[in-house]
Amino acid sequence: MKNIAILGASGSIGQQAIDVIERHPEHFNLVGLSVGKRVDEAIDIVSRLNPDIVSVQYEADMARFAEFDVEVVCGAEGLKAVATASHNDLVLNALVGSVGLPPTIAAIEQGIDIALANKETLVVAGELVMAHAKKHGVNILPVDSEHAAIFQCLNGEDHRQIKKITITASGGSFRDLSRDQLESVTVEDALNHPNWSMGQKITIDSATMMNKGFEVIEAKWLFDLDIEQIETILHKESIIHSMVEFVDTSVMAQLGTPDMRMPIQYAFTYPNRIEHDAPSLNLAEVAQLNFKAMDLDRYRCLKYAYDALKIGGTMPVVLNAVNEVAVAKFLNREIGFLDIERLIEREMKAHQVIEHPTLEQILAVDKQYKSKEYEV
Ligand code: NAD
Ligand code: MG
């Protein structure tokens, strides 16, 4: 029986993780959870799964759990309390944004393994988080489908024999539009992802291709690769989740239908596997798999992510913070779609990089760029 805590239990990944747990009560026990504003959802989960601890974003919501035998906490400290609860074997971090960094660090310091969906944690502090995990003997198990694919391809392999990895990208909602057409797209268009149903922020990040940029950075730190070893390719069916080429040119790929419950469950059971009752991949039905070279001029956010990774230091923190603010403004209909990349480019150009930042410096830069007033 594995005791699992879920940060971000009301989100897209969080809900699918709850589904995995409820389908396998003989394997998994939910010990703690956090939600943001969706308290009704948390009440529902608490009444069904009887965890020890629950965290909500706002103090005012704490009283709503009065009828349950559960410890109630809130805010940033609440996230850390859930992540480090004493019975945890594993924490699934399914928060969105760099808010996921401090509870990840807290769990690592308690020696608790992390199933990581929250890629922003590795974007802003990959070097520091991985070093910290190594020091405390903690596994960081990828949940992102591409990284879960690479992780599986590397099972039992010697990492020094990797030639390169190829991360696949569906292309997002606007894959068939030109840059001129992107000028006038709407929030509704952007939220209409062809292959995956996900939270709003990652759906916009997929449309701008920033999501793939974040995944390049995430892969660098998870698998200790050089930037030149990380390639991306457009693959509109999202059937090949990613691949690894070894020094002898042999290529290993991981395939499956687009269903996040598989990588979530694998992170929960690793190194074992248990049944997953989703339909099997039917390649005869899929019939065709398409690939196209990635175009960094068309997808500028991906280029900025490669740039930020090359520059290093606090540049990826700026990339992420400005992106979080810009995506929120786009979702709020305050700025246009292409303003997201314009803001990021401008702020990256002006940023004075701090090399090898400490956690405190990372959090300070993150806060500075999130609280800044931006003119477009
Ligand atoms: P989501 O928006 O659906 O859910 C995010 C969760 O975080 C919610 O529970 C929300 O309440 C919580 N949250 C947000 N801000 C918070 C705050 N300040 N304090 C406390 N809680 C807060 O997002 P999602 O699509 O589930 O994505 C979660 C993470 O997983 C992201 O980093 C995303 O990039 C990554 N991811 C998602 C998918 C997917 O299929 N959805 C796939 C791969 C990776
Ligand atoms: Mg992904």
Descriptive notes:
The structure is a single chain. The chain has 376 residues and is α/β, with parallel strands linked by helices. It has three domains: 2-142, Rossmann fold (3-Layer(aba) Sandwich); 147-310, no CATH class; 312-375, Orthogonal Bundle (Rna Polymerase Sigma Factor, Chain: A), CATH 1.10.1740. The protein is 44% helix and 16% strand. The chain has helices at 12-23, 39-49, 75-83, 101-109, 120-135, 145-153, 179-182, 187-190, 200-208, 210-223, 261-269, 283-286, 300-311, 315-331, 337-350, 359-371, and strands at residues 2-7, 28-34, 53-56, 71-74, 90-93, 113-116, 140-142, 162-169, 230-234, 240-246, 251-255, 292-293. A seven-stranded parallel beta sheet has the order 4-3-2-1-5-6-7, sandwiched between helices. It binds nicotinamide-adenine-dinucleotide and magnesium ion (MG). Nicotinamide-adenine-dinucleotide (NAD) binds at residues 8, 10-14, 34-36, 38, 57, 94-97, 99, 117-120, 144, 196, 198-199, 201-202, 260. 1-deoxy-D-xylulose 5-phosphate binds at residues 119, 145-146, 170, 193, 206, 211-212, 215. GO terms for molecular function: 1-deoxy-D-xylulose-5-phosphate reductoisomerase activity; isomerase activity; manganese ion binding; NADPH binding. Catalyzes the NADPH-dependent rearrangement and reduction of 1-deoxy-D-xylulose-5-phosphate (DXP) to 2-C-methyl-D-erythritol 4-phosphate (MEP). This is 1-deoxy-D-xylulose 5-phosphate reductoisomerase. It is an enzyme of class 1 (oxidoreductase).
